[in-house]
Amino acid sequence: MIRLSEDAILGLMAKFRADSSPLKVDLGVGVFRDAHGNTPVLECVRAAERSVLAEQTTKSYVAAAGRAEFNDAVADFVLGAAHPAVRDRRAVTVQAPGGCGALRVGAELIRAAAPASAVHISDPTWGNHAPLLGSSGLRLLRYPYYDASAHRLRTDAMLEHLNGAAQGDVVLIHACCHNPSGADLGADEWRAVVEILQRRRLVPYLDLAYQGFGEDVDADAAGVRFVAQSVPECLIATSFSKNLGLYRERVGALIVVGNDASHAAAVKSHVLQIARSIYSMPPDHGAAIAAHIFATPELRSLWMSELAAMRGRIREMRGLLADNLRRLRDDDGYGFLRSQKGMFSLLGASTQAVDRLREEHHVYMTADSRMNLAGVMPQNVAYLADAICRVMD
Length: 393
Description:
Layout: H1 8-18, E1 25-26, H2 43-55, H3 68-79, H4 84-87, E2 91-97, H5 98-113, E3 118-123, H6 129-134, E4 139-144, E5 146-147, E6 152-153, H7 155-163, E7 170-174, H8 187-200, E8 203-208, H9 217-220, H10 222-230, E9 234-239, E10 251-257, H11 261-278, H12 285-295, H13 297-329, H14 336-339, E11 344-346, H15 351-361, E12 363-364, E13 370-372, H16 381-392
Parallel strand pairs: 1-12, 3-4, 3-7, 7-8, 8-9
Antiparallel strand pairs: 2-10, 5-6, 9-10, 11-13
Helix pairs in contact: 2-12, 2-13, 3-12, 5-11, 7-8, 8-10, 12-13, 13-16, 15-16
């Protein structure tokens, strides 16, 4: 049997751990870090977990669809309780093992319903999108999205590509905090994309992995809500790894919006059959924690406060790095860092420059120069800016 290549992110993590330099900077792995470099357990999660454990009387399975109160709360959180799809029961939600599990279940649903359809994914996109969707047997195509050298959206090229997509094709769209670029669609771009989705009868598949990490939980879901009320059907994969810090608990959900309540219920039956064939039952502990937070006003308020603090820290580090680079370069060529959203941005460096950052300066990022800005600290930002200038000039 041929030995497979190591996963790029996991390999980068191993190299970082093996580096003994006190100067090393981790901008690679996609987890939130506080100002001390820790990925914290939120206080709202600690409180909810205590209650869940105290009240728990069994470890038996919950249901194939997961915890009902979690699913109901997720639909309200993502779409809004007053959204037409929720109000008319056209939205069905199934708990999944993280956002990855949701994406894969959605891919299997597409393959079962329309095996000839292509899925259009952004260029660039998150590194796991292609294996998660493509290994289901779906054909993947890439639409232009972001110019890493010019640090801007490729809006015209994106719209031109989507305008040529075949009827029934699926378009995977990052709902907010685009990974890896940090460059999100604005209101005008969302309207233009929706017009094409409607006219070309394309099916949107929205990946909402970072709700609350951009502007706030409602603003970050605005594109999703607009799409869901504008087209007859869509898929939404959501995750609570980032905004609740439940990385290892694997808490996610797949929301499917159908033409009507009957259609949505029929689709749900297929989703459950697919889930049964992959993982049988979803894990419950993280979903129970999330459901408890959703249902407890004091904990939900605490969560929003802690989420705002995480969002604020990332925004502060973006500005601090951009300011340090501006002082060193005497220009604002990295000003895009301030306006982009979420944890990630593309530095726009060559693979050779990325290698030099790692080998000469102990700065770790993925080969495409994606930076996790949550890895920037007040104590390392000056060193990081200097290292970037040394390899980019």
